[in-house]
Amino acid sequence: MTSLRYLGLASLLLLAGCRESAQASTTPQQQQQPPGYYYPPQQQPYPSQQPPGQQPPPGVQPQVPAQQRPLLAPLIGQAAQEQEVRMILSELINALPAQSRPLVANIPLNVDPTPEVNAFAGCDDKGNPYMAATAGILEAVDAISQTKATDELFGTQTYEAYCAQVLPQLVQSQQARAGLPAGIIPQQYGGDPRRWSRAREIFQDVIAFTFGHELAHHYLGHTGCAKGQALGGAPDLSRAGRLLSNIVPVFNQFQESASDSSGVYNVLDAGRARRPQYEWSEYGGVTLLDYFARLERAAGGGGPLSVLSPIALLKSHPNPLLRIPIVQQYARTWRSTHPG
Description:
The protein has one domain (10-17, 64-337). Helix content is 46%, strand content 4%. The protein contains twelve helices and three strands. The protein has helices spanning 9-12, 78-94, 101-104, 135-154, 158-172, 187-190, 193-219, 240-247, 253-273, 283-298, 310-313, 320-337, and strands spanning 109-112, 119-123, 129-134. A hairpin with a 5-residue loop joins strand 2 and strand 3.
């Protein structure tokens, strides 16, 4: 199965039990920030419309016009990103149905400093549930968010440039990183406050989908350890040999599909509850799954015919090309019963 490591990566990176996700460098390099990278003090309105060809993915509901939303402060650095993830996780839990919320209330989140791109639900050695993310997945989501925001606002192709440069490295070398390389964002756009604000919205959307799915593994009973018990702190993931190999469960495709469904509904419920703030939608899931599909193609797999591959059916997670329209259909179903 070693030769299939990266072929299955797109469906394994994100979710519980994905122990074969891409490795990043254990000797990270400091990203050189170009001039204009920092967020300037002035506040400017968003543009009135997106450039041609930069519209949201099909099926995603339009938001309140961007120029009517307040500008958000930038997320710079892992500490700020971790705080954002915890806020998102809290809002997702608060939006759960009454029967599910107590099962995951106060669930601890552990952010592992490893550059591996990963996020998962698991049980510690005492049988208590926890959520975990790595520094690597925060880097990846930050890069996706910054490039997508730049392209929406300025009609650039920075997401394509990022994927073309970074994804082949991820599948060719375990020392590659998923973070945004210097020079991808044009210098003249780097400090624009609208870009930073939109990037934070996209970051929230993608992380909400990520942890909406992971939470579902717990409250749907897939892990078997989320029972509403009193919880302590998060486990020490430096003991990865035992925690990740023996305690993080591996889920089957039916469980993954169920977590996709419940996770999308949770994201949409939480997004609706956030009004008039930026409303989370399936956009984050569609965006992340597109990234994973591109990663498969970079590894020599993927493409339209990959959905017919018998190997894809043996993966622990459904193929991302299959998951995108399914996630969109879940969102349409939710909106049919939640008008407005």
